[in-house]
């Protein structure tokens, strides 16, 4: 039979049946009262429910939470109870002898809600399991020890102003760490602690809503709402937590614009040009952003003609500007109305309109010094060409708007009339020609006339004056180009040879209508037919032109139909040529004129032969002269017996004197001792200049002055020429003939040299010298 053993759990004076222990199976008969073999049946000895322990228990430790007992335990002390699993030995301990289970410390369900353990009964002596191990659970029973918290708080929300009651603002959510399945520890209720009467909260869902209508952002833009969450269903003793919700009212266009004043007054000088800012207007609108954008307009036509108004870049201010030029003398002030209107209007708030406002504006025009004003914006005048200087062209007129009696002076800007073709009267502005004009050279003259106030030269204005030169018949017609044409010998009578075109530089009209006429002789070789369109046709007459070598010169007479008519003549050259069958020119007789008149072919050949002969002689002469020069140069290069230095330039120069020592060429016996100090050179430009001789005192004698200047120039080393002076007065000590210089000779030039021995005996190198100085004088008669 099964036996049950109760395990009692004592907690705070109470008890709880937390498990049952089944006795081990025993042998029993297969049928009641019938003997037979005993049937043995074995089953598990442990059948467990779960144990419970209260969290956060603060009683004396350790605390007994349960007891384990097995039927195999006869109370003899041979059974030992073991406990393994989560927290065994640290959190939970068991009495090996009795099986009592104790908890050693306070537990927190929020940290760990349950523990899984293994219980086993073994023999104390041999540790042999008396029962198979069995698993059981110890659950930590929850108490209300955690207040609600708002993990997403604090909150920020926005709701449009003027919202209806019950408009959802935001939903807040609190969390309670206690066990929601046990009691009311995690059952939350939401309430508003601060923010009434503007907002309310749903107790179950935590949705915050508006509680009153027509909340105005312009009155209060931001609200701070405090929401509380309380567990235990909101009853007494429950824990609570709170959070804040910052609610901002967003703007809607619920306020129309309003001008702070009904009248605006501005002033502007009359010289202000179009686009000049006159002033700013701002209609006040407490709304924000696009809801405060405005558009401005001028209602009265009087103001809209002279002024315009626009909105600035921020869309708030109205900019009043000048639309057209103002004139103080014409009008002193302008009065009109300006309207400001919201650009974005919400139909839901039309009942709060109209969303516009009107203000009056008065603009005073201030007087300012103004330059003279011409009676016309531009002048177009005309004058015939070829008129004598001083011809009246026209008149310009300007007046001082500030004072009609102020005198004006007129002038033409020089750069607009560089040829000085016109002049203007400074007092009255009449324009005259200064030179005769030619329409064919220039049709239009564009002048700029300057008008200046006499009392204030700074006040000046300009005007453009265009003067057209009118045409007169002063140019005779002429051919469009010089015509040089040909006609074939085989041309048929009446054939068109050339179309002649004429032009007239005069203007289109009768002056440019041109007529052309050829020779009136009926026996003429060619005829001219006027086409009456400024051209004529050159035709071959009914009889062909007689052939000749020279071309025909056809006279053409041209005249126009102007008043008076002008005439001119021109000549057309016509050559008679031999033509191929296709009409192209083969040759023209005028080509024979290329040879000189009166010279035959033989004469031309003789002239060409003479010219060739002369050219050959010139080439031969140049070649012989070049060959002779090359032969002399070869001889000079081969003659190396003497150290001959050849100078091709006029002056020695610095290079020649430094190439060798000049003193080696001087006679060492007759050389003067060198002067102390650095040796002076006369072959280069000296640095120091010789002092100039002063003029002698007293009356100057011309000869004496010239001699003084000549001596100063001779003694001045700085004046040219400062070439190298090289005197070869010494031949050398080793020569048997002595010096050849004539400087040491006592004989006069042209006398006999008187050498110690005849020059003919000196060898072939001195043959030329012997001929010059060794020639005997002819005997006296």
Please provide a written account of the structure.
This is Cadherin-24. InterPro entries: Cadherin, Cadherin-like_dom, Cadherin-like_sf, Cadherin_CS, Cadherin_Y-type_LIR, Catenin-bd_sf. Its main location: membrane. It is found in: Cell membrane. Residues 736-746 have a biased composition (Low complexity). With 781 residues, this protein is mostly beta strands. Among the domains are: 50-141, Immunoglobulin-like (Sandwich); 155-250, Cadherins (Immunoglobulin-like), CATH 2.60.40; 263-366, Immunoglobulin-like (Sandwich), CATH 2.60.40.60; 373-470, Immunoglobulin-like, CATH 2.60.40; 478-587, Immunoglobulin-like (Sandwich), CATH 2.60.40. Helices cover 9% and strands 33% of the residues. It contains 5 helices and 42 strands. Strands 35, 37, 40, 41 and 42 form a 5-stranded mixed sheet that branches. Strands 4-10-9-6 form a 4-stranded mixed sheet, with no helix packed on it. A hairpin with a 4-residue loop joins strand 38 (527-530) and strand 39 (535-539). The longest helix is centred in the last third of the chain and has 38 residues, at 601-638. The termini are far apart.
Measured by DSSP, the beta-strand proportion falls in: 25-35%
Percentage of residues in helical conformation: under 10%
Low-confidence stretches are: 1-47, 590-598, 634-642, 746-756
Q: Overall mean pLDDT score?
A: 77
* Annotated CATH topology of the domain at 478-587: Immunoglobulin-like
Name the overall outline: elongated
Q: State the distance separating the first and last CA atoms.
A: 207 Å
Q: Care to count the β-strands?
A: 42
Major beta-sheet overview = 5 strands, mixed
